[in-house]
Specification:
The chain is mainly α. It has four helices and no strands. The longest helix is centred in the middle third of the chain and has 41 residues, at 54-94. This is DUF3618 domain-containing protein.
Length: 138
């Protein structure tokens, strides 16, 4: 029992009739296909949005660079510390004992007299700046 098609319409068939198409998907299959297509489209749109989100991509790149620089700074800090330790050891080994004792004594005096030392340093800096300023103005 099939209906005759009107102008521009397909004929409706009743399942179980000789006109029913066995290759035609069922409504459940069509719904599943539509759901799958919607999910795929959603993932595609999300991927496109991620690619076109310049601010987020720039932030991610900056974070990556920051991490890399942090790692490199850590390695450089370790290398500098090792080099400084080696240089300190060499200096201690080659410096005469009297010079080492004098340096320790000077450091101790400076620690005990910080305020006068800072005041003297400030006065010397001020005098140096005044001399430089006079030379530039002449």
């Amino acid at each position: 029992m099939s209906t005759t098609p009107s102008k521009g319409r397909r004929a409706a068939t009743v399942p179980g009739t000789p006109d029913a198409d066995p290759d035609k998907p069922t409504p459940e299959e069509l719904r599943a296909q539509a759901r799958h297509t919607r999910e795929e489209l959603g993932r595609t749109v999300e991927a496109l949005m991620t690619k076109t989100d310049v601010k987020t991509r720039a932030m991610q790149a900056a974070t990556g660079m920051k991490d890399q620089l942090g790692e490199k700074a850590g390695v450089a800090r370790e290398q500098i510390a090792a080099t400084a330790a080696t240089a300190g050891e060499k200096l201690r080994d080659t410096t005469p004992g009297t010079v080492q004792a004098s340096a320790r004594q000077a450091a101790e005096v400076a620690r005990r007299n910080r305020l006068p030392l800072l005041a003297g340093s400030a006065a010397a800096t001020l005098a140096l700046l005044m001399v430089i300023r006079r030379r530039r103005s002449h």
